[in-house]
Amino acid sequence: MQIKGIRGFKDILPGEVEKWQLVESEARRIFGLFGFSEFRIPLLERTELFARSIGEATDIVGKEMYTFLDRDGDSLTLRPEATASIVRAYLEHGLNQKNPVGKYYFVGPMFRYERPQKGRYRQFHQIDAEVLGVQEAWADAEILVMLMRYLEALGIENLSLQINSLGCPQCRPPYKKEIQTFLQTRRNLLCEDCQRRLETNPLRIFDCKNEDCQAALTEAPEVLSFLCPECRNHFERVKTLLDDLRLSYAVNPRMVRGLDYYTRTAFEVVAGELGAQNAVSGGGRYDALAEEIGGPAVPGIGFAIGMERLIMLLPGKRSLARHPQIFLATLGDKARRRGFSLAQELRDNGIWAEVDYEEKSLKSQMRQADRMKTPLVLILGEEELKKNQVIIRNMATKVQEEIPLGEIIRIVENKSKQ
Length: 418
Ligand code: AMP
Prior knowledge:
With about 425 residues, the chain is of the alpha+beta class. It is built from 16 helices and 16 strands. A hairpin with a 7-residue loop joins β9 and β10.
């Protein structure tokens, strides 16, 4: 039986991969303007890192992690997200002592054992950005404007930025309690998962897609009315700075996000076009995370963009595939060998040249050039070789001319510029 790939793990094929390259290079360009440096983290971490930061009671830690014992009996986990690893590495390498403000971005795959569906995979990719060491609202406003500018630069429209504040370790627990009490009386309306969440992680019920669970929450108290004065001021300041930047947003007091480590600002970018899995990006502040994993207090804020969803939103069906600049069609062994070295000379001069490897007829070589969409073809047979000439054919106009072999590089360079 032919071996197939794993469910929820997608191949990214040539033709599609150019979109990935585009969103990555645009991220590097825009994030560079904001002073962010790239951070690369390992695929595997100690399970404890995620359990303590994301939270034991979250769906990610509770049922979605790829966890296994390695040969020494250590429990390791394929990273389900980047923030915890970046904070771990930042502390481990003492980056907080070298520079109090760290601005980092990351691009790479994540792993979560979720039920695969459109826009949801078991291996998916994220573009993350994190600002470490700044508690003030400047960082919140700046990372949000960077996120939205990036999405705009990709030409993605109809996005809505939703923000909320989740309070801090002082004001969130009373709110959590309040939600628990409120939902106890509506317990039988909740789905099985949410009945369990009611005990362990009641705020996560806001994220449930089940209509009955949402109906149970209709009159639920809102987190914003529970904020302590410091959290309220912080949230007001974030909104003022976003207004100064003329960045549009909507306050969504029901958006709570699924990870335990968020404090204060939380946000999501939602795209109407995506259907059920409509969040293209999410993030928030995590001022207590560094301490949760045993480090000093270091405030932080970050976002993660789901790359699969981002690519689904890219405008236009235009293919970004690249095409060779020239194809060398040759006839006869002597000409083939000359053509083979000529292709190398062209490449040495920065020209993408392709040859036939199967010793096909001239006709099928021309067909192959057509398929590859090369604008130019060089035709080299024994006759031309004797005269030290070569035929160059413009595939669009079908015009052919004979040119001296020694002039090829100059002529191809000129024609490619036209
Ligand atoms: P989170 O880390 O859960 O806040 O997710 C951040 C972003 O990653 C989401 O807004 C999605 O765009 C994307 N994402 C999360 N889980 C998946 C998944 N299983 N498959 C595809 N994209 C995902």
